[in-house]
Amino acid sequence: MHLKYESYVREALVDGKKDYHQVTEDICAPIENKPTKLWYLGFFISASLLMFGVFSVAWEVQYGTGVWNLNRTIGWGWDITNFVWWVGIGHAGTLISAILLLFRQGWRTGVNRAAEAMTIFAVMCAGQFPIWHMGRVWDAFFVLPYGNSRGPLWPNFVSPLLWDVFAISTYFTVSLLFWYAGLLPDFATIRDRAKTKFRKKAYGIASFGWAGSAKHWQRHEYLSLVLAGLSTPLVLSVHTIVSFDFATSVIPGWHTTIFPPYFVAGAVFSGFAMVQTLLIITRKVLKLEDYITIGHLEAMNKVILVTGSIVGVAYITELFIAYYSGVLWEQEAFRLRVMGPYWWAYWAMMTCNVVSPQFFWFKKLRRNIWFTFFMSIIVNIGMWFERFVIIMSLHRDYLPSSWSYYTPSWPEVGFYLGSFGLFFTCYFLFAKYFPVIAIAEIKFILKTSGDKYKEEMKPIDVQSEEEFIEQQAHHH
Amino acid sequence: MAIKKFATATYSDEAVLFDAVKKTRGAGYKIHDVFTPFAVHGLDEALGYKVSDLHVAGFIYGLTGTSTALGFMGWIFTTNWPQNFGGKPHFPLPAFIPITFELTVLFAAVGMVLTFCYLCQIMPGVKKHIFNPRQTDDKFVMTIEVNDSNAGAVEGFMKTTGAEHTDVQVAEEGWWYGWWGKKEQYEELNPTQTQELI
User: Fold this and answer.
1) Which of B34, B102, B119 to mutate to test the interface with A (most CBs of A within 10 A)?
2) What is the pTM of this model?
3) Is the terminal CB of chain A with fewer CB neighbours within 10 Å at N or C?
């Protein structure tokens, strides 16, 4: 009889009447079996995209950033749009791992490993954009404060662009550490089951020699809790700092205090959508529907609904403040967004971000896999347009003779496609060689939330309190 | 690092494990360790372990990060090369907050993870003796250090605690640098362990 009781009315988090050994078998199966044809196909497509991206970036480094269509007055285009898009996507993973741990949400265990991997790969992709846009990328280390003989010359610590450097680096490092700390026991599981010498060696190194000692588990739990506590404000701060790239400027439509909460909500919104996209495919292909249940997908859809609504409220607030402030430039900036040359981007954004998540008020749609998948793509498209719309405020500034229009050149498009290639290549490798679900954490919640054990709770539910207490006391 | 003898008992259920731990400690035996495939809630209390001080270390590392960030940026902008950035004061605390916060978190996280690895004595290349290959899968293993004279008695006692399987193994106590999958010398002294060991 298990020591913790959870009502059987609550939906089970693990279906299929699993026990501990079955959990290990199910999650290790994709790693221990040969890669399928589908995996090879996906990996090949991703690697091809990546190769094209490498070519586009090499072209841009060789011939200079002039091969991009950035010019006065649109000094920022696809590069920063894609940067903010990828960073935003990355935030869901940390939210699922860290914030849901602090909120004691057991359902995070089915999705956190894959979501954190997604975070790390998304941040890697995001980091490509600030690096390669530098032009003289061989001087990229100039952004770091190191002693030099030129004064010494230091970077500008009060610039948001430098805050980004510290924020993204810290976010990547902390996410990687948090993810890897959780992976140690799972690597040990794979290591101890490994049949070939090479696998035993490889996973032996990866597991750092983890053996499962009780004292080590105690420290591990503590470490996870503190890292979660650190990661939560980190998530909030990183996208706030990214929003400062815009908010600390003086450009109408950018210089608003709503940007930090609006960007963070938008990041969570697009991040969860990407998690849905990845997990719906992963659970089907790797046969993990018992662990990533419809209940998990529904919970994530609820988050998408909430954050999508926050983003919608932010849009309406911006429009209202533009009107209410009476500032001519602000009003014109928003009039242009709605009715100017980029109206198509604005309406794509409004439809995808404000209108579409509202469908998730209906339980039937929240629990529908096809609709969720379709929506997750729509949301990500909408969030891309959001950043594009913000940045395209640059196309009309104070001097009419400078007004212009921007379309990306092929190296910019290639760079973006290459970032998808990088992301999916990493994800395919992850799905093949790493456990996509946190094995130890599923086992931790199995006896509370697994459907096999919930059935055993039914007789306890009908017991009287006295009987229950007596039974417990006797057992110990 | 020394070769020692251990009596091990394998359990399939946490509830049985808790009872066994209580009984074993009650009988006066010193439990060397308990190996579980996941963090079992309440086990560290049952074993009488003190609460870990890892968070204190984390806090100190975080403070180091804060002071490093504020001190370094402050020195640069006030003493080393003060400049006029849009009329901002030479020590613009609000503008320093983002980087200060990030360095605090970075130092705390990296420091804590390294401390964790140091305390648990784990790192790439470390190898330890695994008493039961299924202790990272679905079995719970309790070990007590024994010598030649009391090995039989201790193993006999462990059989009475509800263990699914008991044995006496010779093992390297701590950790060493080694390749997993390679048979170590001391393993010659143990009865053959199979993957299906229960």
Assistant:
1) B102
2) 0.94
3) C
